[in-house]
Fold:
Amino acid sequence: MAEEATVAAASAPPQTAVLDDGVELHTGEELTPSTAREISAAGTARVIVLAGPSDAGKTSLLVALFEKFCRGPFAGFRFARSKTCSALERRCHWLRTASGRTRADIERTKVGDVQMLLHLGIQRLDDGTTTDLLIPDIAGEEFKGATETSDDCRRLTMVRRADHFVLCLDGKKLVDLQERHAVIADGRSILRAFVEDGMLGLFSTVTVLFTKADLFENDPEVERLRVGIETDYRAAFLGKFAGMHFRASIAVPLEKAAGLEELLAQWTAESAQDARVPESNNGVPAAARDIEQFSWKREVRL
Ligand SMILES: Nc1nc2c(ncn2[C@@H]2O[C@H](COP(=O)(O)OP(=O)(O)OP(=O)(O)O)[C@@H](O)[C@H]2O)c(=O)[nH]1
Ligand SMILES: [Mg+2]
Structure:
């Protein structure tokens, strides 16, 4: 993995290409709030924000989920559609080719890509209903920035629209006596920053996800630590969210993946965002830009 995060151009890649005969094709690149609007406004859409510091395992989780569906039905769902196949495939590339290397690794998410979304549509095997997951792949540095200034926090507009805000706490660092306290404090700071800036609230469901569980499985000391973190976070954020869950996951290697079924069941269930209706143009400038429109599940009446 590159040591330095790359600063990317903020412009999104083109999502359609027009052939000589005028036919418009999807390029399969990331969506923007504007091009994802049609999907995000539908009742069955779920915006999932994977949050947390750099290296916490956010992108790996997203890749593991996509890879599972590439291999066939998973957790009671099958792959239905994706408008961002190329962007997802690109993220999978590193993990797929990792077998010859000593360490499975994945490219670090670029800073500046905060308005880009990945799309994964899945269909229930039992009743055929489809859920469109929209998942921005946001770099850890952006969440650090959000704890430092309100401007950086409010820039992450996806958080306000998130049906599920998943705070990833790095399991590898929780095992480390030197690093664990910073992980716990940084996670708390991220939640506090978004609450104070009104980006998370009673319309949000928060999951604290202990990632890389393969590194602390059967470790009674980390088990006790997890119970302590849950007690601490529940007390700190009592009454602030629609719901708060605590889970663990393994994303790498894919053969050992765990915890993804529970996440999918939660993400596809009802959402507190479903009942959130914008009051006329309350709080939204008359000339609302796409990004502000995207903050609301339902259309903002202007
Ligand atoms: N052992 C183990 N390693 C994991 C797991 N998930 C991710 N990793 C490793 O953790 C490192 C960081 O993973 P990423 O998914 O890139 O982390 P990120 O949170 O997206 O990081 P940024 O993009 O920099 O914000 C990589 O080396 C992964 O291989 C896991 O479940 N178990
Ligand atoms: Mg990443």
Notes: The chain has eleven helices and nine strands. Residues 180-196 form the longest helix (17 residues). The radius of gyration is 19 Å.
